[in-house]
Amino acid sequence: MLGKQINTVKVLIIIWIFSSAEFTGISQETCDKIDDCSCKKSNGKIINLREIDGGSKAAFKNIPTVRSKQYTFDWNPCTSFSENSECLNMLMCQKNLHSTDENNPCAQKTSKFKVNKDGTTTIIYQSFTDSKDYKRYVTKFRCLFGKLCDSITLKCDESQYPGNTGSGVTERYEPKNSAYTMVFTSRCACDNGCDSPSESGSSKLSIGSILLIVFFALLLFYLIAGVLIKRYKMGVESVPEVIPNYEFWAGIPSLVKDGVIFTCQGVRSGCSSLYQRSSKSGYDKI
């Protein structure tokens, strides 16, 4: 009898654990932030929106509001942009269609990324309080029937590029604060859907690296082409004479040696002259 009661308790505990995970939205998958628009998931895949970023201007402009026709939104996934003195260095700004001078700041920096139970990923931004002490969230909040509404939810769709903001931004207003949410469908919302950044957030080679790659590629082409020409067109078979411009390359060590000797002599002469000037007492001998 006692054993059956213990088994019943175990079953109830297991049911409670699974039901808690279901209703609280616990997900085993995580996505660690790399920068404001990319994260690395626990499965090793990367979500990166930098490929569709607008640079210094918002990539997605005039995003409508779902319920209200008064406001639209401008959003840039990665780089901060400015629209006027009220909306400086933001990732999302709100515009009042009835007042061209009203641009409200909404989001400036990504707080974290959250993987949802349905496989979508949400960007949660840090809240922003403007000069009038009005706080705006692009973050998680509760909407109709207690359902959790997230900020910008990234939904994978290989056919959407650069992406679709769907029906637009959903707003929730409260005294002294507002919260916004939006679903963004794009190929870049898929795992490794767009070019992935490094862990430091940079995905592009530097100019120096590009120049080095080009230099060594041209050098290799020069050597291979020169050897083939001298071997099959000029009939040279001996080594190292088959190397293109062999006389020039063979003379480089002696030229470097002469240059070093000349430089050292010049430096020694200059140092000797400077020493002699500084060693004079400055007084005429009697």
TrEMBL record:
Sorted keywords for this record are:
Glycoprotein, Membrane, Signal, Transmembrane, Transmembrane helix
Which Pfam families does its entry note? Man-6-P_recep
The signal peptide stretch is 1-21
Q: Which parts of the chain span the membrane according to its record? A: 205-229
Q: Which residues form a coiled coil?
A: none
Q: Does the keyword Membrane apply?
A: yes
Q: Which PANTHER family did the record assign?
A: MANNOSE 6-PHOSPHATE RECEPTOR-LIKE PROTEIN 1, MANNOSE-6-PHOSPHATE RECEPTOR FAMILY MEMBER
* Protein name listed in UniProt: Cation-dependent mannose-6-phosphate receptor
Q: Organism, per UniProt?
A: Porites lobata
Record lineage: Eukaryota, Metazoa, Cnidaria, Anthozoa, Hexacorallia
